[in-house]
């Protein structure tokens, strides 16, 4: 039975990062801690045959798309902090909207990319990312893509629809970005899970694809209002703020005249007018999945990944931007 | 004891082959003579070396990587990197410098400079110092640093300066540490804020500040402005001040304390405190701005889109970022002949809708 560093860390009661520092003789480790780790190694019979080496100094890119959502920034920050604890250098270029920053990072020596975007970026370096739960993407030829976690958008949509349907809404619209894999998947799940999908209506009329912007949101929500929607699900926080503003300008009241559900929580969602009901994501779980996959890819941890990446289903955080539909 | 340390200095061939997804024989040939294997295999092996951090470390890999591609896979020699150092922000807290860091990052990448992001944590600073400067362990070389904010980042800046790394700090407190700095002077902003609130008719104005090294200057500035503008003795009673720890909950506690003191307007000196104020107002069923006017010194995320849009005293981050980038590049280029810079930046008042004349109370 091979002894892993995780077991050594657990036995010594220290973190994995500390064990790798002791092994690599890098960074500051208190003498007492060092002794504890070495003792744990000899007790467990740790041998040098595992793949870990002296944690060379490497640069890793941790990236969110341009104009990122709050959850994407949060996940990136947590991942960056964890990688830094393993003595890796972190660079955070924006991706998706502009290829240049990532290219600069790769030229500077980035050996892997960790990203919260769902769009396949076709990088030459390994790309550790998130995907939609049921998305069947072909694994790129070079085998550089690692799916660390899957988002259950279908489940998230169902949750939102169930919430809105329970309070009497049928005419539910979707405001989403005009580009990006997340928007594509949201639309797919929207069409598949919509409560009115079997009523012979053209659901496309209730989908508004607009840029990820404030003005996009205001425009889209009024379009959907004119298409007689009584509730909308909004992909991006900027669009959500725009939608609330657009409705206010038209002297319409949220939630009386239009119920609004956002995607992704942030501290400001409590203070929108009115506080927004949102589908919240498990930021910590997502971050941990990305961190584990990254450490695995860089051969820092050797515990082995789950053969199926963990699935995260967004959860509804009910505030006051949704209410019963008026008959 | 130390000679029995299970240290690992070399990457094994099996490991390289495993990571690259080629056979050991192919890996071996690719390392010795890249011409003898297909271009694809050679690229895979080069990449595996980079992932394992072994580029240029294994004796025979050196020639292999260099010959294979002129661009050089992984080692990143030659390209310059600048570190962007910030104090780590605990989960759930609001980062007052997120906007500035974003602008700095995007501008530097725009100039083709790769940015290395460091989150300073007091108890990890020693290790971070080694990671930042330890290019002899492989990986890229960092040629300078922009340090934003104080706390652990300030301490790390001092350690890096001692080791001779070109540095520029952007911070809201002034220390005699001999490091070049752009000083964000909030006292002018606080004076503007007080003047604005007094002009609206407020007399009981409270100040909420974070308990950090910038607090004394801010409190003194506030008291001086109150005394000068309202012609009152700026005592604890007449010009109430609450010092709070970080985090939204501390903001709520500070807000409740100031509301107890019957303040009709509050100047919050950090975004977390502003969110605390909004939260406290919500809990007490007070309406901002009708029952309580709120001015923030600093950057509240989404300030323009929350309800009500928040009036702020903010810095021109784009200019601050550009100056910092220009200065650090000049300092790196100048080497030992670099000149010390010390700017002071005053903020501007951005009026939105969170401060109105006092209504009742």
Account of the protein in words:
The complex is a heterodimer of chains A (327) and B (361). Chain A is of the alpha/beta class and 327 residues long. Chain A has three domains: 5-44; 59-152 and 283-312, Rossmann fold; 154-280, Response regulator (Rossmann fold), CATH 3.40.50.2300. Helices cover 38% and strands 17% of the residues of chain A. Chain A has helices at residues 5-12, 16-24, 31-44, 70-85, 100-107, 153-166, 181-193, 214-226, 237-249, 283-297; strands at residues 59-63, 89-91, 110-115, 127-132, 145-151, 172-177, 207-210, 231-234, 259-263, 277-280, 311-312, 315-317. Chain A has a six-stranded parallel sheet, sandwiched between helices. The radius of gyration of chain A is 23 Å and the shape is elongated. The model of chain A is unreliable at 49-53 (pLDDT under 50). Chain B is α/β, with parallel strands linked by helices. Chain B has three domains: 2-68, no CATH class; 81-184 and 318-346, Response regulator (Rossmann fold); 186-314, Response regulator (Rossmann fold, 3-Layer(aba) Sandwich), CATH 3.40.50.2300. Helices cover 40% and strands 17% of the residues of chain B. Chain B has helices at residues 13-20, 24-32, 39-51, 61-68, 98-110, 125-133, 152-162, 186-200, 215-230, 248-260, 271-283, 317-334, and strands spanning 81-87, 114-120, 142-148, 167-171, 181-184, 205-210, 241-244, 265-268, 293-297, 311-314, 342-345, 348-350. A six-stranded parallel sheet of chain B has the order 2-1-3-4-5-11, with helices on both faces. A six-stranded mixed sheet of chain B has the order 7-6-8-9-10-12, sandwiched between helices. In chain B, helix 7 links the parallel strand 3 (142-148) and strand 4 (167-171). In chain B, helix 1 (13-20) packs across helix 3 (39-51) and helix 8 runs parallel beside helix 9 (215-230). Chain B is elongated, with a radius of gyration of 26 Å. Chain B starts with 12 loop residues before the first helix and ends in an 11-residue tail after the last strand. The chains are: A alpha/beta (327), B alpha/beta (361). At the A-B interface, helix 2, helix 4, strand 2, helix 5 and strand 3 of A face helix 3, helix 5, strand 2, helix 6 and helix 11 of B. Chain A: This is Transcriptional regulator. Chain A: Residues 3-61 form the HTH lacI-type domain. Chain A: One of its GO terms (molecular function) is DNA-binding transcription factor activity. Chain A: Keywords: DNA-binding, Transcription, Transcription regulation.
């Amino acid at each position: 039975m091979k002894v892993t560093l995780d077991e050594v860390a657990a036995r010594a009661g220290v973190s994995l990062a500390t064990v790798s520092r002791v092994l690599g003789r890098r960074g500051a480790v208190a003498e007492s801690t060092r002794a504890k780790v070495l003792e744990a190694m000899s007790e467990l019979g740790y041998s040098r045959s595992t793949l870990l080496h002296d944690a060379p100094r490497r640069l890793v890119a941790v990236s969110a798309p341009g104009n990122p959502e709050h959850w994407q920034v949060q996940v990136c920050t947590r991942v960056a902090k964890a990688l830094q604890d393993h003595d890796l250098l972190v660079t955070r270029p924006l991706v998706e909207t502009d290829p240049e920053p990532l290219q600069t990072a790769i030229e500077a020596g980035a050996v892997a990319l960790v990203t919260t975007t769902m769009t396949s970026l076709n990088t030459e370096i390994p790309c550790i990312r998130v995907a939609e739960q049921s998305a069947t993407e072909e694994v790129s030829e070079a085998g550089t893509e690692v799916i660390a976690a899957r988002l259950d958008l279908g489940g998230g949509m169902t949750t939102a629809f169930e919430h809105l349907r329970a309070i009497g809404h049928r005419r539910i619209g979707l405001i989403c970005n005009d580009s990006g894999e997340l928007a594509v998947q949201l639309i797919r799940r929207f069409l598949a899970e919509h409560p009115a999908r079997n009523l012979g209506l053209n659901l496309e009329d209730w989908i508004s694809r607009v840029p990820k912007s404030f003005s996009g949101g205001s425009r889209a929500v009024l379009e959907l209002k004119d298409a007689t929607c009584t509730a909308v699900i909004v992909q991006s926080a900027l669009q959500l703020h725009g939608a609330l503003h657009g409705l206010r300008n038209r002297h319409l009241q949220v939630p009386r005249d239009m119920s609004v559900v956002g995607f992704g929580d942030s501290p400001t969602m409590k203070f929108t007018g009115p506080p927004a009901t949102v589908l919240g994501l498990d930021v910590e779980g997502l971050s941990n999945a990305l961190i584990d996959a990254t450490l695995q890819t860089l051969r820092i941890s050797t515990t082995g990944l789950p053969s199926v990446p963990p699935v995260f289903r967004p959860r509804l955080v009910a505030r006051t931007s949704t209410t019963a539909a008026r008959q | 004891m130390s000679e029995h340390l299970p240290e690992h200095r070399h990457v094994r061939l099996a490991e390289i082959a495993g990571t690259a997804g080629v056979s050991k024989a192919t890996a071996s040939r690719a390392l010795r003579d890249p011409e003898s294997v297909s271009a694809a295999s050679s690229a895979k092996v080069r990449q595996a070396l980079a992932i394992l951090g072994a580029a240029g470390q294994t004796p025979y890999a050196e020639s292999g990587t260099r010959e294979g591609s002129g661009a050089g896979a992984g080692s990143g020699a030659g390209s310059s990197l600048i570190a962007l150092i910030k104090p780590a922000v605990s989960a759930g807290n609001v980062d007052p410098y997120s906007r500035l860091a974003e602008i700095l990052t995007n501008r530097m990448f725009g100039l083709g400079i790769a940015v290395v992001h460091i989150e300073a944590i007091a108890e990890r600073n020693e290790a971070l110092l080694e990671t930042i400067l330890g290019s002899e362990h492989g990986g890229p070389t960092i040629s300078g640093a922009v340090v934003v904010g104080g706390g652990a980042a300030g301490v790390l800046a001092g350690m890096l300066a001692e080791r001779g790394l070109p540095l520029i700090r952007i911070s809201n407190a002034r220390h005699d540490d001999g490091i070049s700095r752009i000083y964000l002077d909030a006292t002018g902003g606080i004076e503007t804020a007080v003047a604005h609130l007094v002009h609206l008719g407020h007399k009981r104005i409270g100040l909420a500040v974070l308990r950090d090294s910038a607090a004394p200057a801010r409190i003194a500035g506030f008291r001086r402005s109150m005394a000068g503008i309202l012609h009152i003795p700026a005592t604890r009673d007449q010009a109430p001040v609450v010092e709070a720890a970080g985090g939204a909950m501390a903001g709520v506690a500070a807000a409740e304390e100031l509301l107890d003191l019957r303040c009709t307007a509050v100047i919050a000196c950090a975004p977390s405190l502003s969110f605390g104020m909004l939260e406290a107002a919500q809990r007490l069923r007070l309406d901002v701005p009708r029952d309580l006017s709120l001015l923030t010194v600093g950057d509240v995320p989404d300030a323009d889109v929350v309800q009500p849009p928040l009036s702020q005293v903010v810095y021109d981050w784009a200019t601050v970022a550009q100056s910092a980038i220009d200065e650090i590049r000049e300092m790196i280029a100048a080497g030992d002949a670099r000149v010390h810079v010390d700017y002071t930046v005053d903020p501007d008042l951005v009026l939105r809708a969170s401060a109105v004349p006092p209504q009742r109370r």
